[in-house]
Every structure is written in structure tokens, then in C-alpha cells.
Amino acid sequence: MRQLEILRCGELYWDQSRLGWTVVIPAVAFKNGNSSYFNDRPYALRLPDLGSLYEQIEGYLQRHRAALLGLAADPGTFFVKTVKSGRLKDASYDQTSFYEVWRYAIQRYGIYNPYTGRGAIKGLLPHGPHNVRDVLATHVLKRTGSFEQAGYAIQDSAETVARHYGRFLPHDKAAVAARILDEVWQAS
Hints:
Layout lengths: L1 H6 L3 E5 L4 E6 L17 E4 L6 H17 L25 H16 L20 H14 L2 H7 L4 H7 L5 H18 L1
Antiparallel strand pairs: 1-2, 2-3
Helix pairs in contact: 4-5, 5-6
């Protein structure tokens, strides 16, 4: 963990005792690492095997990652760039190149194009990886009305969520309350 703190990065590893892939990231690697959510502890999560995730990780590590690297030196990171005919010497991503490849993937595969019928989500706009925090926090707030639950979803404190993501319209708040009351009435 000390080495990860120095590098300010996380690690994905197979946890034999829990029989699952686990992500561990020291708090200092997060922009908001000093928030009350972390309490000076690392973030650790066993990834659930949804959508055959474990099979996909194994395939990537055993076959696909090596094909992407080609003859380039292994940078020791999970995600690597495709190395083509000696043009690229470093297969690791930095913050800028990761942002660019994320945005390109969203534009190419995420945004629904009515003319070609390709893409996954109608109305999706190009965005970077940080916007996932906004989407998660807003979604959890709209579903639960809980700043604390939204904070758990984005690894932040309830105070930060209230300050940055808690801009509900009054009808959104009323809809959350009505849904919760409906669930209570249906349960009884």
C-alpha cells in the first residue's frame, strides 16, 4: 500500500481468499482523498462478476493485452495503448491520452446515431471519464433522495454531494418522496 501511495495509483488483483477481482486505491490517489468518506483509509472493492466480467478480465490479461503491446515494453498498467509498427514506444496512458480515448469511445459506441442505427444511448453527449461521477451522483440522488448514498456511489462525503450535486428541482424531490411512500403503502 505504501508503494501505491507514493505512485498515487491503485491496483487490481485476484484475491484468492475472496475468490474475486479486487480494486484497492489509496486515498491520496483521489482528488477528494482527504474527505470524510475515506477517513485516511484506502478504497477497496471486490468487483462483482456481472456480465461475465471475470471471464473478460482473464481473456484480456491472457491474450488481448499482449496483442496490444506487441513488442513494446510492458508499462505495468492494466490498460495499455495499441502499439503499431514501432511508431509508439510507450504503451502507458497518461491523464490526457486516457481522457481522449474515453471520449472517442463514447462518441463512437455510446452515442446513438439515428442515421446509422448504431450507438447505445439516445441523447448522450460526448464527455470525459470525470462526468461519470456527475451521472452516478445525480442518479442515486434521484432514486433515493439520500446525499449519503450518493456520496458512497462516488466515494465522497454527503456534504460534498449536497454542495455540488444536490441541485434538485422541487418536482424531483416530490417525485422521490412519492415513490418511497408508494413502496411503503404497497408493502403493507
